[in-house]
Backbone:
């Protein structure tokens, strides 16, 4: 006869600890309620919101839909907000051709992003540059890798 105790039977099975997560990035193709319900039922454990694209209002709507999908399916998942810092970009160059930046050459940086730059003038997307950098300040540019 097996050594089985009634308390062991009534205690039930211990909760399974999953060490692997399924992360799904939500976007326009997965924004519908039925798609989110399908993702939850397929095992989505984390919903990722990519703030590189879309507005805060768009992501709020997607989160509201996800909450409804979780309520409908009674399946929960985590939410990951993938935020990115601001990017500062240089503008277009005249003729779309690369420019050779020589050491020691003075270059003027403009916040008028419509300006097409050359080896002496470059447009930059950072509108607050004049507030944060004093005229005549020196900078050593680095190439984005």
Residues:
């Amino acid at each position: 006869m097996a050594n089985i105790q009634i308390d062991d039977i009534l205690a039930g099975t211990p909760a399974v600890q999953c060490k692997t997560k399924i992360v799904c990035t939500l976007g326009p193709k997965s924004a519908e309620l039925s798609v989110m319900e399908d993702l939850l039922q397929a095992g989505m454990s984390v919903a990722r919101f990519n703030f590189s694209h879309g507005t805060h209002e768009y992501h709020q709507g997607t989160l509201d839909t996800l909450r409804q999908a979780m309520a409908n399916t009674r399946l929960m998942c985590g939410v990951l907000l993938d935020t990115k810092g601001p990017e500062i970009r240089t503008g277009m160059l005249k003729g779309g051709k690369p420019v050779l930046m020589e050491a020691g050459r003075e270059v003027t940086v403009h916040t008028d992003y419509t300006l097409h730059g050359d080896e002496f003038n470059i447009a930059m997307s950072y509108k607050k540059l004049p507030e944060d950098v004093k005229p005549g300040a020196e900078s050593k540019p680095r190439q984005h890798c």
Summary: The beta strands are 23-26, 46-50, 78-82, 108-110, 121-123. The chain has a mean pLDDT of 86. The two ends are 69 Å apart (CA to CA). The longest helix spans residues 56-73.
